[in-house]
Amino acid sequence: MLIVMKADATEREVENVVRIVTELGLRAHPLPGAQRTAIGITGNHGAVDATRFETLPGVAEALRVSKPYKLITLDLKPEKTIIRVGDATIGGDELALIAGPCAIESRAQAFAIAEIVRRSGARFFRGGAFKPRTSPYAFQGLGEEGLRILADVREAYGLKIVTEAMDEHGLDLVEKYGDVVQIGARNMQNYSLLRCAGRSRLPILLKRGLSATLDEWLLAAEYIMAEGNYNVILCERGIRTFAQHTRNTLDLAAIPAVRRVSHLPVVMDPSHGTGKNYMVTPLARAGVAVGCDGLIIEVHDQPERALSDGAQALTLEQYEQLVPEVRAIHEVITPAHVA
Ligand code: PEP
Ligand code: MN
Predict the structure, then answer these.
(1) What is the tens place of the pLDDT at every residue in 207-220?
(2) Ligand 1 pocket, mutate which of 189, 208, 272 (most atoms under 8 A from CB)
(3) pTM tops 0.90, yes or no
(4) How far does residue 286's CA lie from ligand 2's centre (Å)?
(5) Residue 95 maps to a domain
(6) How far is Cα 3 from Cα 19, in angstroms, rounded to an integer?
């Protein structure tokens, strides 16, 4: 169920509704919006009697929710969620740029790339310390040492750190060193990890699973939000199809599809979405053109020597060339998708 408060409802009236919902053994999720606060209710098995809430002071209406999601939906919050990471944002007016190597390989590598990422004006630096590799014999990441390097990059350049947690222990460590927790495609349906992420104080960047439908992906976000973490960024990174000319098939249509049902910001990963260096720039442009809130892009100072995903890494020069292009495209379409 969804309780919509009147536009002039007071904070006390909202608190009162939350208290009553909690006393019933349910969980209340108040999400303040521009016009009014709405309160999503989870934890019920079966229908909740709406009439008992309708008469409470400050309540405009209590609505039964027939859709499978309760918190990601525009019904709860009609305006887009803006995720604030310190003084940077994802989902606001500015196109969010998250760039960096697939994996942190060394201090020298991370700093050489971060230097250019910072110079381009991006606010976020990516890089994995824990890598989910197909082969157990492939480079698995530097672990905590990688996170320490990332923390030093933040210190040196003021960039916000986006990095993956593969399990609960990794999540604790990322909380210690990072700014945004990435949940990778392979873990999109790791429900115990999603619940832990839901109790994190950090925003979560949730990648779409390799074969996840839109509903499965949105319900994974719902897992995180149901635990009380409302700062979720969705990330389209391509899905597996029969196509063999790309590593994955980047689903551009996912962006407007998410937009139609959810207030959550959605970013695009043209690197994993294509797997090929020469496709990253055109698909990055396309992602921005269909209205994504940001791009997460793999960049390497020596792609030919990269320990993971070298084939899809942009060179520093290619990355620097891309940034003004995608900014220009964002500028052109922003008035349309805000309206
Ligand atoms: C990554 O970002 O390097 C990564 C492993 O991504 P995905 O989970 O989308 O494969
Ligand atoms: Mn990668």
Answers:
(1) 999 999 999 999 99
(2) 272
(3) yes
(4) 20
(5) yes
(6) 13
